[in-house]
Specification:
This protein is α/β, with parallel strands linked by helices. A 9-stranded mixed β-sheet has the order 2-1-3-4-11-10-9-7-8. Strands 5-6 form a two-stranded antiparallel ribbon. The termini are far apart. The structure holds zinc ion.
Length: 309
Amino acid sequence: MNTCIKAFAKRISLALMLGIALCSCSMEPTRPQIKVMLLTGQSSKYHNWELSSVLLEKHLSAVEMFDVTRVVTPAQGEDFTGFNPEFGAYDVVVLDYEGDGWPESARKGLESFVGGGGGLVSVHATDNAFGDWPAFNEMIGVGGWGGRDDDFGPKIHWFDGKTQLLNTPGSAMHPPKHDFEIVTRAPEHPVMKGLPARWMHPNDEIYSRLRGPAKHVTILATAKADKSKVDRGTDNHEPMLMDIRYGKGRVFHTTLGHCNTQDDEKVFSLNCVGFITTLQRGTEWAATGEVTQPVPADFPAAEAVSVRN
Ligand SMILES: [Zn+2]
């Protein structure tokens, strides 16, 4: 190749490289993607992770900023030796899991991830899991069942305009599924800002008398089951949505979202626009500390539920 042709080829390749560089710059998204690990794979006989995790994935994937990866644990009774999720590759972990204990390496992995500033979202029956894992109990603030008996730690509820801890007897229970009202308790919190003060939520369980270390918990929303109206009501304003801080990490805990093997694919609790919206906003907040998603026009009102198909 003579010198002239060489110089021409060099100029062409430079121009091409510049073009590719400019092109890739202009194609970059305006906002970085939030990497979400949806971790699921086991539930008790009262729940159905195979259905709930599909709905959670659908609701999270509907948000453009989320890049969702579904990670499934070994099945109940299977070998967990190689189970060691790469938490550090994600911004937030959404847990839909109630099952076998994890090996020490996986436990330490989640502790380091959240303690170091990673986000965590705990959905419904996840707070039944890992009663014997002290750091997990700190991450979720309060939990139920799974060995969390009367001396496990204080109960938490909303009373007299503020959060109160109770050391009185009584461990977790819930009334039968029914429609109930959710009351916002922290209207200025990023997850709750702009949501109505009261809204109706369909066919779900009011998790009640949850216990735990209950440290660094902010109650975002509550619900109350009247003893006179439903079986196993407590008459207390029980926390439904919570903000918990663990080390440098943020945890969004929703006790909503019951899904059992008898439910059909509609599952009103998980397809409630209130559940979907708080899940999406809570996941963004756990990952970044902010919420940029608007409140949807079909958000439920104080008088009526709103469910998407
Ligand atoms: Zn349930």
